[in-house]
Write a structure and sequence with these properties.
279 residues; alpha/beta; TIM Barrel; eight-stranded parallel barrel; binds 5-bromo-uridine-5'-monophosphate; Orotidine 5'-phosphate decarboxylase; orotidine-5'-phosphate decarboxylase activity; Aldolase_TIM; OMPdecase_AS
């Protein structure tokens, strides 16, 4: 049977049981874009301007909503308008890491009410399966999807080896809500015990640490190219932040647009090569 590495986004969308995963795969196919832009800026105006510029070229916007200094809920309403206008999904990169009861509150409530607007979010597997139970109690009724952090892009990351394998086993035990991983490579069949089979599991792999012009940021971040990530490592979505909006919070919309187009093209080309090489 073909693994998700060899299948098109469209055929995976048809088969996926989770609504948020399906919506993302359909968006990728419709827009011919596996590019997610990570918008880590501290002012509402910069945040919304960058998203409006890159919107046509992306399948997903990744947020860290807690870094917005002048946050009020209207920024979420604007973000949702842009999501409709440009046809992209939303992923709050919250990296939950606490006991089930606490993460359920953090996900549903507080100032940000993440579950109400973010199609995808993520969690560290470090607390064990109860973190999934807690988040699913909020997210599943809303049709949301969860990604586990199986690996990180940073130098010296501890999320390797047995930890990564346990993360995949945790995901495998909750296929209704956990749709995949933040990771640096495909996870098909990782952590299977003797006699177990991967069946028709289809984990989405979203990958940060993507850059075409630099190898790192001097603070531990490590960059690989879209080709290395999508073609060589079999990941599904490239996540790009500063490579697109630069050092000046995306002050020059033409430069931001040009970079978004460039990364979209590179990511899609790598996917097409992957499919061609395996079909
Ligand atoms: P950059 O500007 O492309 O380096 O931003 C990368 C984004 O992805 C940033 O929001 C990080 O918080 C996020 N990230 C990451 O870089 N590496 C990881 O392993 C994980 C998230 Br998980």
């Amino acid at each position: 049977m073909a693994t998700s590495f060899t299948q098109t986004y469209a055929s995976r969308a048809e088969k996926h049981a989770n609504q948020a995963a399906r919506a993302l795969l359909e968006t990728i196919e419709r827009k011919r874009s596996n590019l997610c832009v990570s918008v880590d800026v501290t002012k509402q105006a910069d945040f919304l301007r960058i998203i409006d510029v890159v919107g046509p070229y992306i399948c997903l916007v990744k947020t860290h909503v807690d870094v917005i200094e002048d946050f009020d809920y209207s920024v979420i309403e604007r973000l949702q308008e842009l999501s409709t206008k440009h046809d992209f999904q939303i992923f709050e990169d919250r990296k939950f890491a606490d006991i089930g009861n606490t993460v359920a509150l953090q996900y549903s409530s507080g100032v940000h009410k993440i579950a109400h607007w973010s199609h995808l979010t993520n969690a560290h597997p470090v607390p064990g399966p109860s973190i999934i139970t807690g988040l699913a109690s909020v997210g599943l009724p809303l049709g949301r999807g969860l990604l586990l952090l199986a690996e990180m892009s940073t130098k010296g990351s501890l999320a390797t080896g047995a930890y990564t394998e346990e993360a995949v086993r945790m995901a495998r035990a909750s296929p209704d809500f956990v749709i995949g991983f933040i990771a640096q490579r495909r996870m098909d069949g990782v952590g299977l015990r003797e006699g177990e089979s991967a069946g028709d599991e289809d984990f989405l792999i979203l990958t940060p640490g993507v850059g075409l012009d630099t190898k790192g940021d001097g603070m531990g971040q490590q960059y690989r190219t879209p080709r290395q990530v999508v073609l060589e490592s079999g990941c599904d979505v490239i996540i790009v932040g500063r490579g697109i909006y630069g050092k000046d919070n995306g002050a020059n919309p033409d430069a931001v647009r040009a970079q978004a187009e460039r990364y979209r093209e590179e990511g899609w080309k790598a996917y097409q090569e992957r499919i061609a090489a395996t079909s």
